[in-house]
Design a protein that fits this description.
binds zinc ion, 54% helix, mainly alpha
Length: 364
Amino acid sequence: MGADRFALSTTSTYGCEVTTTAVSDRPLVRQRERMAGMSLARHAARSDLSGGRGPKTRRWSGLKPGIPFVLLHVACVAVVLVGVSPVAIGVAAFTYVTRAFGITAFYHRCFSHRAFKVPRPVQLVGAVLGAAAAQRGPLWWVAHHREHHRYTDRPGDPHSPRNDGLLGAHLLWLFDAKNQPTRLHNVTDLAKFREMRLLDRYHHLVPVTTAVATFGLGALLGDLWPSLHTSAWQMLVWGFVVSTVLLYHSTFAVNSLAHRFGQRRFATRDDSRNNWLVSLLTLGEGWHNNHHRFPACARQGLSRTELDPTWLGIRVLAALGLAHDLRPVPSWAVQAARQGPATANAELQAPPAIRTDSPALGPS
Ligand SMILES: [Zn+2]
Ligand SMILES: [Zn+2]
């Protein structure tokens, strides 16, 4: 893949309105691509992630990730066996919110759209947090999400209620054999990092470790403080199983409900909607029509009533020096949001699209 092709892909897939790769950056981009290309080839060969053309790819390969998915849902029934305690609910809330932030801030806004930059160690921590949500590795997740933005609600979109129905866009797409390989050509900027390739390859170890940690925490608390009325099994069920399943469906609701139900502020070419309920469950990702209009902007809720906890979290990271170059939403869009739904489709009177600096190709 040449540098020009790469620049085009960067622009059209996750650019914030108009993004360009500066001409002076191209030798650097080519060098990075060459290095990434060699590593990618190895990664693809080892993981059968070559785009579905490898000999190991089978039609039924989509059923494999379905097994733990189904088992986790069945395991939720165990809440009646293990009981409940305030501390177990508290841990479940903690694992839900922290892993949701890993998905929304890192997998989505930082990795998929380069909406802000982070130092390399922070990138790794964010990727591990996201991987703990058991939604596969960062390369697979980002590659499919970029495909979603490239073909939103058109043929080629991995998950669209218009193409696949509500249930298909919500979860059935996950088990389609054609969606199993990582589309590596979409993630050359991320795959050049060895730790990201390793994490993608061994992504299942992170949720397994999380499950073991909740089990161990429950055993410890039950032993040391019996008055907490918790146990290893109770903590595993609430802190990992229930929390993971809830996080599955809130994340998936962005792909299904937020493309079918809600308000459309901007006349995008897709079916994306602003859905307050989905936003509430996903730390602000339900302002999905805003997001499809400004995909590479770090903020998705555009007014005070459009709560966007992920944006607040990113600002906290920035205040601590752990994130920088947060891409802003154009002021005219924030203004339009303040004036309410009467100004819907305000982009028709909007000034020309903003230009941003060349997109980051990795952490600073
Ligand atoms: Zn969407
Ligand atoms: Zn997105």
